Amino acid sequence: MNTLFRQAIMASALTAVVSTAAIAAPAQTPSDFIKTVADGLIGRLKAEHSQLQNNPSAINAIVKQNLEPYVDVQAFTRLVMGTYASPQNSTPQQRANFEKSLRQSLIQNYGTALAKYSNQSYSIRPYRPSAGAYQVVTLDFIQSGQKTPVAFQLSEQSNQWKIRNINVAGIDIGLQFRNQFASTVQRSGGDLDKAIASFQPDANAATKK
Q1: DSSP code for 127
Q2: Closest CA to 182 of 52, 62, 53, 83
Q3: For the chain, how many structural domains are there in total?
Q4: Is residue 64 part of a domain?
Q5: Is 176 contained in some domain?
Q6: For residue 27, what are the domain limits?
Q7: Most buried residue, 37, 58, 127, 149, by most Cβ within 10 Å?
Q8: Tens digits of per-residue pLDDT, 12-29?
């Protein structure tokens, strides 16, 4: 599978979940929520593709505006930090620094990929409610007959759906980023501050099998 396409799918899928989350009242089912916002985002990406491709700062601004308020960044930060998120293994300042760095890195990752998004469509799989804390909705993104399944893990907070993690073509993105961070800590000789300062999650590497 083309890695650039998969990276773009991951980024566009993540942003699709949060792009118009003002309508994401829990009165909507997770499936209806995903369908509404994905329709809106895909239409915008197609209409503005040429402008966004030539203006990375503009698409980064779109990602920043539409992603940060509606993603559970703290939960995603804990997931990526893994055992280092424990109060026994890091200070509150280190965790805050990591969250800030992770936000910016994700904006850059997703902005770069979204600028290459074009001519994708999707189909939504039947939604099966979960009795657990999280709901999962799966879309199949389609390009040139090729399907890439993207599963969204959602939680409800303050009458709004928020995304905690995504799975692209069977690959747990949060887990892949956690493995990347653990390797960064190891390369930094266990110096957590150094690892936090240098960590750059690699979405392209994360979606490779």
Answers
A1: P
A2: 83
A3: 1
A4: yes
A5: yes
A6: 3-201
A7: 37
A8: 555 554 444 444 446 678
